[in-house]
Amino acid sequence: MMEELSLNILDIAQNSISANAKLIEIDVFEKDVDNTLIIRVKDDGNGMSKEFLSEVENPFFTTRVTRKIGLGISFLKEAAEMTGGTFNIDSTLDVGTTITATFVKDSLSRQPIGDLTATIIALVTLNPQVDFIITYCVNDNNFIFNTKEVKTMLGDDTELNCPPIVTFFTEYVNEHILNLNGEGT
């Protein structure tokens, strides 16, 4: 099992990139009133056939040739269910896939979210060909980071992975996440 939920997000998003996604939406919703933490990753990638979808939660099933097991989806499912939460995958061939994991937020079995900023920055800067819409919501307050909007503001020819922009993104995303959690200045 992965130690932090942000690593699960990274793994699932990498699966989306491998499935030729051009747009990946990542939502993290923390709701105290419902005592839930919801992680949703939606992509416009290749999608999965019904046969493939029936096997994808099996840790001994993978399409990778570098190893014989695929643990990312099964780890996320197990992490959600250990808290009393739920897990769901919806996928349509040639349309895309949506993975939703719901956690009981105050469960002692719930893993920490971890370094969500580092996950977001890694995905955005290492995959400039992919657009990301990342929504982080704590109760009624949210932060949305949309790379399409960033590219429009900076100019389409701007490299999102150049060091000054990576530094800015890191500070910007981290500040918003900290503020939503009541830890900002």
Question: Any descriptors?
Answer:
6 helices; Heat Shock Protein 90; alpha+beta; six-stranded mixed β-sheet; 25% strand; 185 residues
CATH fold-type name: Heat Shock Protein 90
| Domains, number | 1
CATH superfamily caption: Histidine kinase-like ATPase, C-terminal domain
Largest sheet: 6 strands, mixed
Structural class: alpha+beta
Give a short overview.
This protein is of the alpha+beta class and 185 residues long.
SSE blueprint:
Elements: H1 5-18, E1 23-31, E2 36-43, H2 50-55, H3 72-82, E3 86-92, E4 96-104, H4 116-126, E5 131-138, E6 141-146, H5 147-154, H6 163-180
Parallel strand pairs: 1-5
Antiparallel strand pairs: 1-2, 2-4, 3-4, 5-6
3D architecture notes:
The protein has 185 residues and is an alpha+beta fold. It is built from six helices and six strands. It has one domain (5-180): Histidine kinase-like ATPase, C-terminal domain (Heat Shock Protein 90), CATH 3.30.565. Helix 1 runs antiparallel to helix 3, helix 1 (5-18) runs parallel beside helix 4 and helix 4 (116-126) packs antiparallel against helix 6 (163-180). 37% of the residues lie in helices and 25% in strands. The longest helix has 18 residues, at 163-180. A six-stranded mixed beta sheet has the order 3-4-2-1-5-6.
